[in-house]
Design a protein that fits this description.
This is S-methyl-5'-thioadenosine phosphorylase. The chain is of the alpha/beta class. Helix content is 31%, strand content 20%.
Length: 283
């Protein structure tokens, strides 16, 4: 059994109705299609603030984000899975990247490790085992750097080569500002990436097309579902679950700049949707 909710937040409606379902353990999970029902929303137009705020309002404490990515390394072949550790931001400032934008309150979230280390470390063994159980020989790569580009066009060959020189291993259009907003909302966040193509850096290969991406995604759909099922079931039963999913809670306490005057009440009300511990009308 499942329910679907479409929640209005101060930042608007999320990309799609949020599906709430129960695992066999009785723990509840929420699913949200970031690009909307039927993949109808361009990367630059994804309402990430509304998405994260809606999940936070439902009590979500950890996000396992799945995403198709391009590979910038020969060894990360299409079909491979990856758990990235770092991000290079190549978006262009058109995506609202902070819940504090448009308010009179300033905050600087720590983002040196853009993915929740404790969650990523826990995922590594479980994802690897799930891939081995399936028996298709799918590899898992860890500790990689992902470049987030604006899109919707794919990279030029020159850009793709430059990203490799910068130390990029993967590239997508979705991880930002999603991961930044999750950090501001004190939600643990990890990305499970599926390589679909080699982007455009290989001189002897054709540049990536949407057809290439879709073909690999379809081929890997069953693998992604299997990984998700295994990971969610094991996390729900892990005695360390509370510490794993709550790893970011309290992380914004020292990120909010002190003020000499009280902030506007409308700003406090707005931010109480994501950080009720710090923003209430009484404090």
């Amino acid at each position: 059994m499942y329910n679907q909710l479409r929640l209005l937040q101060p930042w608007g409606f999320p990309s799609a109705p949020i599906t709430i379902a129960a695992l066999p353990s009785g723990k509840h999970i929420a699913f949200l299609a970031r690009h909307g029902t039927g993949h109808s929303i361009q990367p630059s137009a994804v309402p990430s603030r509304a998405n994260i705020a809606a999940l936070k309002s439902l009590g979500v404490r950890a996000i396992l984000a799945f995403s198709a990515v391009g590979s910038l390394r020969e060894e990360i072949a299409p079909g491979a899975f990856a758990l990235p550790a770092q991000i290079i931001d190549r978006t262009k400032g058109v995506r609202p990247a902070s819940f504090f934008e448009g308010t009179n309150i300033v905050a600087h979230a720590a983002f040196g490790d853009p993915f929740t280390t404790r969650l990523v470390d826990w995922l590594e063994g479980r994802v690897r085992r799930a891939l081995e159980e399936e028996g298709r020989g799918v590899q898992l790569f860890t500790g990689k750097t992902i470049v987030c580009m604006e899109g919707p066009q794919f990279s030029t060959r020159a850009e793709s080569i430059m990203y490799r020189q910068w130390g990029g291993d993967l590239i997508n259009m979705s991880v930002l500002p999603e991961s930044k907003l999750a950090r501001e909302a004190e939600i643990s966040y990890a990305l499970i990436a599926t390589a679909t193509d080699y982007d455009s850096w290989r001189p002897a290969s054709a540049a990536v097309t949407a057809h290439d991406v879709l073909a690999t995604l379809k081929a890997n759909a069953d693998t992604s579902r299997h990984v998700a099922a295994v990971v969610l079931a094991e996390l729900a039963e892990d005695p360390e679950m509370e510490a794993i999913i709550g790893a970011e809670e309290g992380s914004m306490r020292w990120s909010i700049m002190p003020r000499s005057v009280a902030p506007p009440i409308e700003d406090v009300r707005k931010l109480s949707f994501i950080l009720p511990a710090y923003f209430t009308e009484s404090n």
